[in-house]
């Protein structure tokens, strides 16, 4: 890449890894465009937490103090039995890490950090990629085709960049044996920056309240054979949840009724991404798109930030030569990812997951 200051990079995804990477690359002289399928900044996602070296990245980005202002200050989680009696306690760090903030706040902070000198294209998505010796020809669903020197997929576990550019094997997406619904409802349990967790064989009922004392967030998770339900409609998903929790006591019947009325219902399965390589020519993956560790790892956001920093650093060290930078980035981050994915599998097992299953067709 002869002139680093003229190099153009397209990043797919405007959540965490994408904007963080955009900041680093723009600082190093790249012209950066971020394309995002959503019509605007995503307001979904309840909270994200940070651990370890992620704090170094937030400090380098210059947003650590601002992020801390949104700390949910979550306390511990009470373990209860079938009747709701307390049987144990989990420390705050189990779910909230060293710092927890609403995801929407982190997304907004990273967007503000980059909006002035990064081009954002919302309500659009990549539909085709064609690489040659000079760059990558990109076709969009809405906008006119353009060319870029590099394309980076930071577009999550269901990455379109991965689908288009990587011949991923059937076992690239590995279901961890757990699916579940999330929604918010009235804080009838009186939770005050705390959580409550009820575990049975094959199910987990988790509720917590952070920030808004009148509302609590509920997660109803259960063992599942595949991630097939992710692609089904809400009616089918709700039916699966009700079947998994049929006959359960404590607050579960009331929570199932409130689930049906929730306007923020979301359903997902715990999956990991396992690839032999995170780059193909001028195209690379960062964060969940390349190496999702599953939400049960508690490391997704930290991993996204650290991956973005590493990729930018390696490009800078290689003077923009992707042929050197991409393998160096992978070599640096892969051991960290392997450790986090092990945590993700352990977490899924704790929440009732039935173990790792490969090749469920979600790639």
UniProtKB/TrEMBL annotation:
<feature type="domain" description="FAD-binding">
    <location>
        <begin position="7"/>
        <end position="337"/>
    </location>
</feature>
<dbReference type="InterPro" id="IPR002938">
    <property type="entry name" value="FAD-bd"/>
</dbReference>
<dbReference type="Pfam" id="PF01494">
    <property type="entry name" value="FAD_binding_3"/>
</dbReference>
<protein>
    <submittedName>
        <fullName>FAD-dependent monooxygenase</fullName>
    </submittedName>
</protein>
<keyword id="KW-0503">Monooxygenase</keyword>
<dbReference type="InterPro" id="IPR036188">
    <property type="entry name" value="FAD/NAD-bd_sf"/>
</dbReference>
<dbReference type="GO" id="GO:0004497">
    <property type="term" value="F:monooxygenase activity"/>
</dbReference>
<keyword id="KW-0560">Oxidoreductase</keyword>
<dbReference type="InterPro" id="IPR051704">
    <property type="entry name" value="FAD_aromatic-hydroxylase"/>
</dbReference>
């Amino acid at each position: 890449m002869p002139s680093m200051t003229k190099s153009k990079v397209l990043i797919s995804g405007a959540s965490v890894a994408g904007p963080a990477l955009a900041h680093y690359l723009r600082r190093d002289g790249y012209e950066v465009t971020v394309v995002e399928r959503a019509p605007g900044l995503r307001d979904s996602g309840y909270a994200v937490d940070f651990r370890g070296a992620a704090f170094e990245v937030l400090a380098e980005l210059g947003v650590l103090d601002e992020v801390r202002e949104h700390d949910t200050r979550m306390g511990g989680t009470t373990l209860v039995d079938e009747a709701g009696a307390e049987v144990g306690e989990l420390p705050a760090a189990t779910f909230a890490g060293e710092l927890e903030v609403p995801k929407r706040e982190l997304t907004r902070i990273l967007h503000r950090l980059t909006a002035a000198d990064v081009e954002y294209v919302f309500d659009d998505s990549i539909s085709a990629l064609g690489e040659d010796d000079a760059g990558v020809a990109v076709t969009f669903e809405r906008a006119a085709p353009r060319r870029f020197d590099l394309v980076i997929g930071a577009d999550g576990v269901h990455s379109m960049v991965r689908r288009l550019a990587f011949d991923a094997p059937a076992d690239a997406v590995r279901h961890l044996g757990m699916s579940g619904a999330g929604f918010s409802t009235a804080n009838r349990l009186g939770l005050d920056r705390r959580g409550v967790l009820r575990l049975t064989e094959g199910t987990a009922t988790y509720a917590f309240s952070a920030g808004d004392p009148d509302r609590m967030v509920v997660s109803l998770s259960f063992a599942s054979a595949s991630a097939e339900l992710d692609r089904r409609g809400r009616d089918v998903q709700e039916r699966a949840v009700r079947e998994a929790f049929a006959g359960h006591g404590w607050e579960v019947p009331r929570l199932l009724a409130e689930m049906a009325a929730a306007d923020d219902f979301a359903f997902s399965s715990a999956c990991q991404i396992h690839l032999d390589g995170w780059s193909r020519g001028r195209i690379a993956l960062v964060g969940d798109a390349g190496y999702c560790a599953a939400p049960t790892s508690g490391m997704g956001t930290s991993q996204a930030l650290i991956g973005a920093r590493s990729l930018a650093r390696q490009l800078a060290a290689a003077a923009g030569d992707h042929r050197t930078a991409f393998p160096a980035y992978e070599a640096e981050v892969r051991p960290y990812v392997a450790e986090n994915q092990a945590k993700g599998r352990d977490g899924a097992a704790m929440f009732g997951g039935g173990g790792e299953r490969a090749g469920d067709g979600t790639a």
